Description:
The protein is mainly beta. It has no helices and eleven strands.
Amino acid sequence: VQLVESGGGLVQPGGSLRLSCAASGFIFSNYAMSWYRQAPGKEREWVATIYWPGGSADYADSTKGRFTISRDNAKNTVYLQMNSLKFEDTAVYYCSAVVGIGRSWGQGTQVFVSS
């Protein structure tokens, strides 16, 4: 299993970013995909999950209405569209999936919200 995130960067409050996660090494369309984040000095927290088949999604209360998770099974890629970003969204964002008996993680991509 390999998960490679991209798309992080520096953004002003109220701005937007779209994160991508390219997956390989497993049958992508068979698995739910999730995003997590870890802010400095805090524990890693769940952000959102998208399921398949169906494409339904769940969101943490802190991101609901601002973030949208989506997937492109043809590209083996999951996305996280982040709008109305706040200072408290600053974190390293990780793509994740449970494949087999363990949860796999990408290396993370840094999002920094600052004016």
